[in-house]
């Protein structure tokens, strides 16, 4: 019989070797192993926890092995990370070391003594004691990076954004797996009676626990999982000015189509014509599937958004540019993602973001509005992209987006970033979504 620990070992190996996404492969690994619901919870926490906390775990393990940790066989290293996560973060009792030594015996017998000795050393101190030890002579940024298990460059970026006083809250929030939020698409579904409503979106609610597939409306696609920040990004665009019949809307970067569905649900009753575009064919297919509840009322195109805009000047009344980005605003959602990001990712992304936004502004009708949205708060991908695109388009200006947001979510606080909206997990319990409305004035 496969155990939770074995599932966690297998999944972390595939994340490491095949660049797999843990959230995509873990559910089927759990199903294949036929784990009980208790063991499924254990496997899930172990896998995501050890991936998320890798920075801290490695700093501790580095102190406990002779020589550099990178020299340790990668399968053994993953086992040590999982076990150290259990000991220090979950604070499971030291007898779990025997379970891991048994695993080591089964998988790589020669390492069992080394695993035992290393884990005994780990278990001699608490997490707090280890953090004090491994950050003793560290800079403040490095100490934060270790304590909250983030790459140091990301900590530096976040300090720039929220300041040193608040950054710990943001880093801690990134280590909390989010409670899934759902949306009942307006006009197609209503929030279940008694469901806990989300704070800001009029259509959002939280699941009551249990399997999401049991939630009414999920299988028909009229209720779906969607971060509240994503819901608000769409609603800010649809509330930018009253919807007129026969408006033309474009979702320029639509895959996999979560936001398109809310655009369609909002626009269809007004006779809006909506086009959803996505450059990657397999993601365009996901957009088509996402739009199943709307029949063929939404046109789906598979094009480079820059070309599409170049051929359609003065055409659309509202455009959503949900740009490809580093995704640093959704680190809490994807356990391993923080370790895969590099500052160099910006080299290709930023010019693409600028061209997509600039192209979209060129496709607006006079009075039309673009919502530029990223799931990253970094200035290079947000305010700087907006400033560069506006500089190219004297006919466009930014709109005070926080004011529009309060028409959707009157109780929201602390969401203003200049003329834009900036949501954060530690402030709003959403992904760190950036939203800037831009209007063509002439
Ligand atoms: C942040 S995702 C969009 C998420 C989507 N709006 C949703 O809510 O489901 C960005 C998308 O832009 C697509 N993309 C990247 N480059 C593009 C381009 N040049 N033109 C159009 N889409 C592009 C990516 O493939 C990706 O699917």
Automatic annotation (TrEMBL):
The keyword Transferase applies. GO terms for biological process: regulation of DNA-templated transcription; RNA methylation. The keyword S-adenosyl-L-methionine applies. Residues 159-441 form the SAM-dependent MTase RsmB/NOP-type domain. Keywords: Methyltransferase, RNA-binding, S-adenosyl-L-methionine, Transferase. GO terms for molecular function: RNA binding; RNA methyltransferase activity. Belongs to the class I-like SAM-binding methyltransferase superfamily. RsmB/NOP family. This is Unannotated protein. The lineage of its organism: unclassified sequences, metagenomes, ecological metagenomes.
